[in-house]
Amino acid sequence: MSDVDIKSVLTENRLFKPSAEFTAKARLKPDDLKALHQQAEEDYEGFWANQARQHIDWHTPFTKTLDDSQAPHFKWFTDGTMNVSYNCIDRHLANKADKTAIIFEGEAGDTRHISYQQLHDDVCQFANALKTKGISKGDRVVIYMPMVPEAVIAMQACARIGAIHSIVFGGFSADSLRDRIDDAQAAMLITADGGTRGGKIVGLKEAADKALSSGCDSINDVIVLKRSGHDINMQDGRDTWWSDAIAGQDKTCEPEWVEAEHPLFLLYTSGSTGKPKGIVHSSAGYLLNAVTSNLWVFDLQDDDIFWCTADVGWITGHTYVAYGPLATGASIVIFEGAPVIPDAGRFWKMVEQHKITVFYTAPTAIRALMKFGDDYPNKYDLSSLRLLGTVGEPINPEAWMWYHTVIGKERCPIVDTWWQTETGANVLTPIPGVTVTKPGSCTFALPGMAVDIVNEEGEFITEANKGGYLVITKPWPSMVRTVWGDDERYIDTYFPKFDGKYYLAGDSARRDEDGYFWIMGRIDDVLNVSGHRLGTMEIESALVAHEAVVEAAVVSRPHEVKGEAIVAFVICKEDRPVGEDAEKMVAELRSWVGEQIGAIAKPDDIRFADGLPKTRSGKIMRRLLRTIAAGEEITSDTSTLENEAVVAQLQGEA
Ligand code: PRX
User: Fold this and answer.
1) Å from CA of 419 to ligand 1 middle
2) 530-561 per-position pLDDT tens digit
3) What is the dihedral of CA 168, 173, 174, 179, to 10 degrees?
4) Residue 458 backbone zone (phi > 0: left; psi -120 to 50: alpha; other: beta)
5) pLDDT over 90 for what percent of the chain?
6) Does residue 9 surpass a pLDDT of 70?
């Protein structure tokens, strides 16, 4: 394994023009993009109304575009009715019934091709099964599944009957699942016996049983897909196998025509408090930006095969797997497995085998695979690729360059897409074939997206390279509608400053002298570990819930593959553990956090001390903790600290 140095270059000004090969086929030409921007600037609402008429099949056409009467709870296309599943499937049946909608590959190499007609039939049968179990419009259904086509079928079936799904990522623990079920008061859970990852079975049903035995009183039914085939417990009267649930069900199911604003799904995401919030997305507005971004950013055309490697447990797996690409009639790839099984060539082998043309993944995956050297990708024919994308965290220019040269062979533009669970779809991103890119910059806002940078007073920052708050100054169709059951929290989180005029993204950013956006990092206590968002408070709450812990503070340190690694400073009730006791306690706490939240939240480092560094007014000095976590020299004066002696302990020197 060659160890590639992936440290970042801070100032990056190399320019990369789209290749002639890409540009020749691209959907959007420079003039098209200019025209879209111009239309949006001249008539913002008219622009989105036109897009909505063009890209969505309406059951009842809308006459009102934007309703801002209850700002910042904005509504779009309110008097229109439509159905998301109809838009993703049925509308393609006239001329694409036999086209492959989903190519699935399991970790063991098993593959399945599902046509649009088959997808329609499967979704309808499952939708009818949901109805038989009493699920109807507005009911919440939690989906806790491996990354298999049935996860998408379940989502689409919910959409078809107007049920609101909430996916809980399969890597989350029983406790996280229970909390999300309880918060949403879900009536049904859809799960599987287990998934496979890294050659091991992930026991989803066991976790589900644990969740259901400790709460979840709202759940009436559990539908269980047989996937791993291992022995599980099925509870009479509550649990039904997927195959039994669909047996004898009709392969047609009239879509429920819902209002544009009807919630399509909830998706829980971390914030700066201990409790994740249920982000609510609408039907029509969400779908609109999902479609436009798949067309503009991923340039999806009829012969494309699009692989977005995200799990459906995250927003990327909603917008760029389960909904957006299908709504454009594309063929998508779904993979259940790890990128290094059986070896680090797995992704590239799949590109060759399925002739993937558009590939979208996270910087952390690129960095992890890059560490294995060029031989793996060089073994495979990657000539089908024409476009590459990244999402979830800043990409360091070295990883960008590797992606560009070794994977994209300098032919494929890279779209570095900045967005969030709350934005629903891409916001800042290059347009492939048009935008000249700079490694590490997500470049410019999409047409119809009003993105800016402001200072503490809410004034626009025009000076080049001066950092500030990233804000979105106008509502957009796929924006978060509210936090499930907590309108106040929606306002407090996203509109806390500037008289509620702008949506506060929670990131800081700067624009360079050419106007390119550069994301600088979060402004709140949210970590980004391997492209996944985790609240420091959430991990701290999990730690202090352990009987041996009195206080904990969580920060991050830079990590060359994961972006950020989690470092926890822990104060125990008894004496500070040292030596073997400390090692034991570290193992205990890591597995405890894994149980409380999920494996992704396990701290990488845990350090013990007699106290946390606090100011005399009692505030934890997080900046100092970050310096200590990164192993950097402390340059600030620590003499004002209430308990200066703990600093040496936290540094591991005492
Ligand atoms: O900090 C930004 C970072 O990820 C956050 C959103 O996380 P989440 O809601 O989990 O959605 C991830 C997938 C869209 C943002 O606030 N982020 C996302 N994309 C980028 C990014 N940071 C830098 N560059 C990006 N391209």
Assistant:
1) 5
2) 989 999 999 999 999 999 999 999 999 999 99
3) -60
4) left
5) 89
6) no
User: From ligand 1's centre to the CA of 244, what distance in Å?
Assistant: 40
Give domain status of residue 438, yes or no.
no
Q: Which has more confidence, 422 or 523?
A: 422
Is 316 close to ligand 1, i.e. is its CB under 6 Å away?
A: yes
CA–CA separation, 620 vs 624, rounded Å?
Answer: 9
Same domain, 475 and 388: no
In sequence order, the 6+-apart residues with CB closer than 8 A to the CB of 79 are: 60, 62, 63, 64, 259, 260
103 & 226 share domain: yes
Q: Is 442 in the pocket of ligand 1 (CB under 6 A)?
A: yes
Residues 241 and 271 in one domain: yes
**Are residue 470 and residue 584 in the same domain, yes or no?**
no
Grade residue 11 by pLDDT with cuts at 50, 70 and 90. low
Domain boundary among 391, 416, 441: 416
Domain that residue 558 falls in? 526-653
Contact 361 CB / ligand 1 (< 6 Å): no
Residue among 507, 518, 526, 536 whose CB has most ligand 1 atoms within 8 A, to mutate: 507
Ligand 1 atom closest to residue 506's alpha carbon, by position in its atom list: 16
Higher pLDDT, 24 or 274: 24
Which atom of ligand 1 is nearest to 442's Cα?
26
The CATH number assigned to the domain holding 644 equals 3.30.300.30
The total of structural domains in the chain comes to 3
Between helices 174-184 and 579-596, what is the axis angle to 10°? Answer: 30
Of 625 and 638, which is predicted with more confidence? 625
Last residue of a domain, which of 520, 536, 557? 520
Nearest one of 41, 25, 87, 78 to 446, comparing CA atoms: 41
**Predicted confidence (pLDDT) at residue 3 exceeds the cutoff of 60:** no
d(CA 140, CA 188): 7
β-strand pairing of 563-572 with 605-608: parallel
Judge if the beta carbon of residue 523 lies within 6 A of ligand 1.
Answer: no
Specify the ligand 1 atom closest to the Cα of 395. Answer: 24
| pLDDT of 5 over the 50 cut | no
For the ranges 254-263, 479-488, 500-509, 639-648, the lowest mean pLDDT is seen at: 639-648
> What residue's CA is closest to ligand 1, atom 13?
392
Residues 149 and 234 in one domain: yes
505 and 546 co-located in one domain: no
Candidate of 265, 393, 504 to mutate for ligand 1, largest count of ligand atoms within 8 Å of Cβ: 393
DSSP state of 441: -
Rounded distance from Cα 222 to ligand 1 centre (Å): 33
In a domain, 437, yes or no: no
pTM, full prediction:
0.94
The rounded distance, in Å, linking the Cα atoms of 64 and 99 is: 35
Query: 458-502 pLDDT, tens per residue?
Result: 999 999 999 999 999 999 999 999 999 999 999 999 999 999 999
